[in-house]
Amino acid sequence: MPIDDKKITDTHISVYLENEFKAINAHIPRNRKTLTQLLQETRPQIDLSDGSTHFFRKKELEYIAEIINEEERNFLMLPMLMEVSSEMSDIKVRSSRGIEAKILSKVLDMDVAYDQKNVTVYRRQLGQIRKILATSTQYVFTP
Known about the structure:
Blueprint: H1 6-24, E1 33-34, H2 35-40, E2 45-47, E3 53-55, H3 58-67, H4 70-75, E4 77-78, E5 80-85, E6 90-94, H5 99-108, E7 113-114, E8 118-122, H6 126-132, E9 137-142
Parallel strand pairs: 5-9
Antiparallel strand pairs: 1-4, 2-3, 5-6, 6-8, 7-8
């Protein structure tokens, strides 16, 4: 007679979900570059975890450069990673210096919530952000 061992089932589900999140996040960068570095490249690009290459639009990088100062360009790491969780209605963008908040505020033409670690935007704002910053932002899916 089969026994439903909750512990074994939970372990299998956890391993499965962990592998699924790895698969849907295969597009995340191995290493990010600063805006300054990318602006100096003829074809701005980074390598992704799945072995492919991500190219940035030069005009998009120049747009961002107009929003922030030279010092901030040396600290802004691109692409900005937008953490999407199935549990939450908002999106988190890690931001230790507030540079991302400054950029997203300009793109959305409104102040965004910033708490010294994260910028918070809402799912309904993603279309506008991605329309303007299509190559400078990437989704990261979290449990």
